[in-house]
Amino acid sequence: MYSQDSISGRRRGRSEPTAEMLSGLACSVCGADFRQAHDGDEAVVSHRDDKQLLACHGTCARMASGSVTGLDEPPLPLAERVRRHVPPPP
Fold it and tell me: What DSSP letter does each residue of 19-32 carry, written as one string?
């Protein structure tokens, strides 16, 4: 699969998360929009400013947190994440 070196390198080379990623509406690794293809297959992989950062289960979660399933924490419901989303200023 992926070596620990490639996973660590991916973490170091990652750009700042977008507003959608910070709100838990997009995967923090591949950028997949959970609002478009929501199947409940996201995992909490980190926290930032008291918000959950989510990733797709599997490779994205492993690249983000080192675990295929992410942290042992359920993500907030999608409706709640959408309600809390603060879009970037124009």
Answer: HHHHTTSB-TTT--
Alpha carbon distance 82, 8 (integer Å)? 30
5 bridge partner residues: none
DSSP state of 42: E
Which residues does residue 54 pair with via DSSP β-bridges, in sequence order? 44
Quote the tokens at residue 11: 């973490």
Looking at residue 6, what is its pLDDT? 60
Q: What is the mean pLDDT of each run of 10 residues along the chain (90 residues)?
A: 59 72 91 82 90 91 90 92 82
Its pTM stands at 0.76
Q: Which of 8, 64, 79, 72 is nearest to 32 (CA)?
A: 64
What is residue 6's three-state secondary structure? helix
